[in-house]
């Protein structure tokens, strides 16, 4: 039943018509609980509040699977304006971007040039840019683009998904790259990815420990309190400095844990999506946690 619900929402997240329609529709279905508004002003306000309690942020100007160059150029320009705002307002935050928003499916070179422009400005402001990992059909291209960009820029990293069988091996060549580790949000086949929660959790814990002992800065991105507790115990036992990692969670999820972890002295970063292209992101969150569907039902019926 859980898998049927998951597949249903993942299916909706990929529906181009609904994604387009939702942009004109404005926030519905309770999306505002997980998406911090549609404008830079609205998201800057949220970042300032979180910064004031010791939480840093990563901002995602929502958008993905773009098939039109003009739309990718517009997304890049919005990201450049966002960088200016982060710099001017001295916000403690970095950026998360998706290569398919910046044209990967249209023309790889065009996408790389967009990224270079973003990284040049971000670098001049001392801002790190993380490339979100999308579905498996974009996995190798994402790693290849990252490695190409890293020849000229050191302020760029990406995300690795513990559910992919190949992640552990691929990480051997990425030890010097700042990375976010996640379980993985897309529906992938058993040819490439673990399917059960137990296998995915086991892989996540194994990879996270290896990263903490052997690699560059790692963002441990999960809402799973069992994994977080295991990581806390591990860094204590191995005497690993808090400077080597941070915990990351999504805006609107388990918010009491965000401030608790920051108060305990851990680096904590909230991933904040914003913008009008909210539908695909929101549907993936419903796929992960069917309990959130209750919020949607309330939003539809209790207004
Ligand atoms: P789950 O397996 O979903 O949850 C584990 C347990 O935690 C649950 O059984 C429950 O006990 C508890 N729990 C979880 N959520 C809640 C809640 N809201 N309230 C109460 N208890 C809860 N995926 C990608 O593929 N690419 C990316 O670039 C990417 N970036 C991400 C960035 C961040 C900061 C985060 C947090 C996730 C990102 N993801 C990304 C999504 C990720 O892959 C997972 O799909 C998502 O985080 C759900 O997995 P989980 O680790 O939170 O644990």
Automatic annotation (TrEMBL):
Essential cofactor(s): FAD
Cofactor note: Binds 1 FAD per subunit.
EC number(s) recorded for this UniProt protein: 1.5.5.2
SUPFAM superfamilies in UniProt: FAD-linked oxidoreductase
GO BP field: L-proline catabolic process to L-glutamate
Example of a GO MF term: nucleotide binding
Keyword Oxidoreductase: yes
Transmembrane segments: none
Binding site for substrate: 98, 284-285
Binding site for FAD: 133, 161, 183-185, 197, 222-223
Reaction(s) this enzyme catalyzes, per UniProt: L-proline + a quinone = (S)-1-pyrroline-5-carboxylate + a quinol + H(+)
Key words of the record: FAD, Flavoprotein, Nucleotide-binding, Oxidoreductase, Proline metabolism
Pathway info: Amino-acid degradation; L-proline degradation into L-glutamate; L-glutamate from L-proline: step 1/2
Chain ranges of the Proline dehydrogenase domain: 44-294
Record flagged with keyword Cell division: no
The protein, known as: proline dehydrogenase
Organism: Oceanobacillus piezotolerans
